[in-house]
Structures are given as C-alpha cells and as structure tokens.
Amino acid sequence: MGYDLHAVIGGEEVLRRAGRATPAARSVPLGQGLSLMPMTDALLDALRAGDGGRALVFGPLRVDEGEPSPRAGSPISQALRRLGVVTGPGEDEFSAVGLHRHRHDEAWIS
Questions:
Q1: Closest CA to 91 of 104, 81, 106
Q2: Whole-prediction pTM value?
Q3: DSSP letter, residue 4
Q4: What are phi and psi of 24, to 5 degrees?
Q5: Which residues have a Cβ under 8 Å from the Cβ of 40 and sit 6 or more positions away?
Q6: Residue 82's CB: how many other CB atoms inside 10 A?
Q7: Of the four, 25, 64, 106, 107, which is 20 to 30 A from 2 by CA?
Q8: Are 46 and 23 in contact (CB under 8 A)?
Q9: Which helix (H) or strand (E) holds 28?
Q10: What is the pLDDT of residues 32-83, one digit of tens each?
Q11: Residue 54 — φ and ψ, nearest 5°?
C-alpha cells in the first residue's frame, strides 16, 4: 500500500505563522513539537516570505519501489531526524511522530 503525502512538516510555531498568511491552510499536530500542513502554492510562498529564506531544505531524496532503504534510513526518516525527531526502541522517526496515522493528504485535513 502506498503513502501519498504532499505537506510541510516543521515546528508548530513556524507553521502557525505560515498558516496566518494562508487562511485556508490547516495545521495538524504530530508529536515532538512538530506539525504537518498540506502543501499548497500559497503555503510555499508564505514559508519563503516568513523566514527570510532560512528554511531548512532537505532533499529531494528518493528510494524506488523494491529498492532497499539506505543505511541512513528511509528518506522521510532522514528528514525527520534532521528536524530533531528522537525514536524509542523498535520505532523509526515516521512512527515516532505519528505519520502512520493516515496515508493520504485528504485524511490529514478531514
């Protein structure tokens, strides 16, 4: 089963400020101080304007279907680790912040 998500993940306060500039945007708390906001052109513009271009940019990373994950972990785990996500025994960064709860954009905002 695939996972289809086009969103920004970042600190709750950063996304809250961006959300004020894009009234239709909705932020969803994850865990460990992070939130998720589905990506739109307006959100991308607000993020660029709101932080003066200092946003942490990481990627794009890609692992084709059927390929093993790199030693450093899946692309999403690597990105979440850069955002400061800490894992517990037997979990990866993806589950540590709760991204396993939904598999598609629409489910996060409904």
A1: 81
A2: 0.74
A3: B
A4: -80, -15
A5: 22, 24, 25
A6: 12
A7: 25
A8: no
A9: strand 28-29
A10: 999 888 888 887 777 777 755 555 566 667 778 888 878 888 888 888 998 8
A11: -95, 10
